Amino acid sequence: MATNHSTCNQTLPFEESRQLLVGVYSVVFAVGLPANCITTFLTIIQIHRGNIVAIYLFGLSLCEMMYLSTLPLWIIYTQNDHKWTMGPTSCKMTGYIFFCNIYISILLLCCISVDRYVAVVYALRSRGLRSQKIAGVVTSVLFAVVAVVYSPVFFNNIQDSNSTTCFETPLKPSLAVFSIIRFLIGFVVPFIILIFMNYKIFQSIKISYSLSPHQKSKVKYLAIAIISIFVVCFAPYHFVLLIRSVHFFLDRDNSCTFENKTYTVFTVFLCLSTANSVADPFVYVLASENARHEICRTFRAVGVRFLNESKTDSNKPDSTQKTPVDPSLGYKEDR
């Protein structure tokens, strides 16, 4: 929320984390964007084949691509010593997408775990409990709820004429309360559900005779991957968010000093949360039975098409060697 509180923001140690943030954002953008584009294409194929988890994975990839499209703006902002020069509307939009991405990703990863739980623990009854229609409705509702929760960003006058930063204001009582709610509802509750579901999954596959060893490994590694994303990407940021908010209420007079001292750690952990944009495509690989085959077949098809086009172009007669063409008539033959 872009504003310029001179008593606090002027002393923030922007330089300490600038190079690290720019480096991480750049790597995430360079790796995450093509990876999520491929994942989106492959999940569309899986959806047409009736795969239920592909609905959640498609929503996840779509969300990640929307966020990744804003990363160049964050890179420019960070490189420019946290001076936002692209106007308040673009600041609100990029911040809105940034935070929506975090919680939509958390909730969709939670949905994937719930779906795996139902499919594994209630294998015989899961056909009545799982369908693409249900997955589509759940995904749409999650997108809508998170979008509405963060929509006040667009209606608050959060930037004055002297503002320079974007979404880096000192804590206020309302913002501290909202941060605690985000921690509890947006992280703790999904994480408890995640742990419970995967614990039950581990118990079930141990005694299951219907799953092959390969299938058991896929289910186990998918659970480990999702839990790891939560612990590595989301947990550090949310715990620092909680500590800052609780400290605000316990020692409000010195809250600004505490925020400045924890700024670098808080910013680095917030940046770390973006790594899920690179990690999420691996969830597709673990969730899909034929992921490796689909990826290889896609690249093979693209390679064959490229070779065929190259051969076609090489077989065309080189008209420029036979008859000189007047530059003014460059497009005459194409008409």
From TrEMBL:
Where in the cell does this protein reside?
Answer: Cell membrane
Q: Does the keyword Membrane apply?
A: yes
Indicate where this protein is primarily found. membrane
Which GO molecular function entries does the Swiss-Prot or TrEMBL record give? Answer: G protein-coupled receptor activity
Query: Which InterPro entries does the record match to this protein?
Result: GPCR_Rhodpsn, GPCR_Rhodpsn_7TM
Q: Which domain of life is it from?
A: Eukaryota
Question: In its UniProt entry, what is this protein called?
Answer: Probable G-protein coupled receptor 132
